[in-house]
Amino acid sequence: MKYLEQGFFGGVLLLLATAATCAALIAMLRPVLERYALARPNARSAHQKPTAQGGGIAVVGTTLLLSLIVFVAEPSFGRPALQEFTPVMVAAVLLALVGMVDDIRILGTMPRLVLQFVAVATVIAALPDEARIVPLIP
Questions:
Q1: DSSP readout, 3-25?
Q2: pLDDT at 122
């Protein structure tokens, strides 16, 4: 029970650290995002005035950074777990970059679809056999 309590509180602390780091990064990036990634309202927009976009890069960056810190700081995970998690991190970075580029300059539908497909295929290919619904299909 004591281990579960420590794990719970460690998880809560990690969540709070992630949220605080995210908020700080978004606050620091906001002037840059307002200058280069400003969404202008149009007929399909949910906002009425120009709004900065691209804050997802702070969320993805912080989550990946703190995930790496946990992998390094917690010896029970070990190197194999980090190697298994690497394709997920690469896919997350690819998706974040696609979103960031699309926020700054419009990407066409096909390039976005292809890059998103590559990211998802990377994660699916990295799944262990026991996590697959149909073992013959990666």
A1: HHHHHHHHHHHHHHHHHHHHHHH
A2: 87
